Amino acid sequence: MANGTADEYVFVPLVNDVNYEYNDQTLTLSKISATIKIKILDNNKHITKIKENKNKENKNKVDINNILVLTGYAIDENSLGLVHTLDPCDYVKGILVNGIIEPNGEKKQSGQDPSKQEGEIKRSGQNLSKQEIIFSKAEVMNKLYFIRKSKVDLYNDIKINLITVTESKHVGKTNYRSLKIDNENERDKFKNKIKGITDLYGIDKEEDINNLVEILSGIINYYSI
């Protein structure tokens, strides 16, 4: 590894019925049964890029690149933890952000080294753990399955943190899920749910937010358990 260090990243799943909020450099995923907090380290280092741009007609648009696809996984919709199904047809899509998982859903105590925290989260009887995988900076874009792939400049190796279900999980039939926005009311609800993502990436123009919603509606599909 470069200088014996690896930059920390967290896989953030893009799934239905989850509220994404961003405050005080913390991205929070929440629903009734689970809360997960991710401390963002450097907004310039995210591997998944979302940025405002212009098209050929000089109209506003949003570019989104490097959505990570984790094959062989499904998501437990109650805890938001990943379950390794060993089925190559199962997958979960998400964004890869430069950050660390906050243990027990709480902010780290001052003086603690974030890299040494356990990252265990307990919510509503669900135990989640942090699985760490380290990739060489030269192999990241080759080893990982990205859609809308674009070049990323990496200066260190990377450590990807996955939020996984701790206890043994019975793997039966997995369910295919996708996002469907059929009317303006559903669009507005989804815009509110992903406000944390738009805030994280500084997407604040209404036209660009609507464009992002349209793009994500075509991207968000996954398998749940």
Characterize the structure shown.
By secondary structure, this protein is α+β, with helices and mostly antiparallel strands. It has a single domain (2-224), classed as Sandwich (Jelly Rolls). Helix content is 15%, strand content 41%. It is built from four helices and 16 strands. The chain has helices at 140-143, 184-193, 195-200, 206-219, and strands spanning 6-13, 19-23, 26-31, 34-40, 49-54, 60-65, 67-71, 73-75, 82-84, 91-101, 121-123, 126-135, 146-147, 157-165, 175-178, 221-224. The longest helix has 14 residues, at 206-219. The chain is globular and about 50 Å long. One of its GO terms (biological process) is defense response to virus.
What's the short version?
The chain has one domain: Jelly Rolls. It has four helices and 16 strands. Strands 1, 2, 3, 4, 7, 10, 11, 12, 13 and 14 form a ten-stranded mixed beta sheet that branches.
Question: Which characteristics define this entry?
Answer:
225 residues, CRISPR_Cmr7_comp, Cmr7A
Count of the domains? 1
Radius of gyration in whole Å, from Cα? 17 Å
CATH fold group? Jelly Rolls
Q: Strand count, sense and closure of the main sheet?
A: 10 strands, mixed
The number of strands is: 16
Mean pLDDT level = 87
The N- and C-terminal alpha carbons lie at a distance of: 36 Å
Compute the number of helices.
4
Class by alpha and beta content = alpha+beta
Quaternary structure type: single chain
GO biological process, one term: defense response to virus
Region (Disordered): 103-125
Pfam family, one: Cmr7A
Biased composition (Basic and acidic residues): 104-123
